[in-house]
Amino acid sequence: MTENPSIYAQAGVDTAAGDIAVELMKSAVAKTHGPEVLGGVGGFAGLFDASALKDYDRPLLATSTDGVGTKVAIAQAIDKHDTIGQDLVGMVVDDIVVVGAKPLVMTDYIATGKVVPERIAEIVRGIARACEETGTALVGGETAEHPGLLKENEYDVAGAAIGVVEAKNLLGPQRVAGGDVVIALAASGFHSNGYSLVRHILARNDVLYTDHSNELGGTYGEVLLEPTRLYTRPLLDILGDAELGSAVHALSHVTGGGISANLARVLPEGSWSEVDRSTWTPLPVFRHLSDLGGYTLESSEGAWNLGVGMFVVAEANKAHAIIAALQTRGIEAWITGAVSLDERDLTGFDQGAKGINGGAVRMVGEYAR
Fold first, then answer.
1. Phi-psi region for residue 54, left (φ > 0), alpha (ψ -120 to 50) or beta?
2. Of the candidates 142, 155, 158, 128, which has an alpha carbon nearest to the alpha carbon of residue 67?
3. What is the pLDDT of residue 303?
4. Fewest beta carbons less than 10 Å away: which of 169, 248, 249, 250?
5. Architecture label for domain 173-364
6. What is the three-class DSSP state of 210?
């Protein structure tokens, strides 16, 4: 049954605005499509030709879904929506590469109080740009107008993606060995985690997102919307390298839960590692917000990445070559610890996380200045 558009509009839903938004975003979405994508934008389902999977001996599908948390509140507060899409792709697609998988397709979902076509298109264009950068086809999405549930300028975004990895190349704890080193990959900022704490600190100090910070070199809103760094392409390049790929045993995406807990998830039971804080200097925004909130950097390690967005666990003799390969691809990296299987007292270590009985990790030392 087709509803009378004018009647639906009386309830606050503007289907015509949704159609306009689709037209505005179509060209950006199309740029993510290779010959494997069948059809265009607007179908009930996105279609992807998976014939290439027949060349795999045992293809494993990897899937991930996520959002960007309360970072959207800052985008809405300063009316800047062109980077939040990259945050979404980073949160979803970089989870897939953690197991060694190549991302294939992604879909997005935007719920809003009122469809403003230009704003929706801006968000989706950001998603599409990041999908293009990571080699992921954006094959579908949904924009839902929820008047009465969300305010006119409020929205939330979520996404899901699917990738594939050859079973014999699956990364994870089963490949990690004693003596492996832990390589830290630099983050661009907060990425998409810990923003509830950020917002709490700013509100408590009566700081507006439009206020300028001399220490940070911009307004709080602009600095806090620094988009999530995308690690997929550089890591897939390394995994596909004949010499370096086999030396990478595990990857960890530093997202919700903090630094040590996320590393512990990809280490085998019975192993442990100490992450040396002195090997890096947290970005100024972390120190500034910690000082503003009256917290130590150490106390925020469970909420913020403090400048580390990803870990690579790899063979020690290939670590420097991996670091060099990352740096040529624009990602600063450094050795920050090692994995041990020796027995020891694990009091004070984070042991596994999110239902996974992994290894044990703790932070040691003091952050460099």
1. alpha
2. 158
3. 93
4. 169
5. Alpha-Beta Complex (3.90)
6. coil
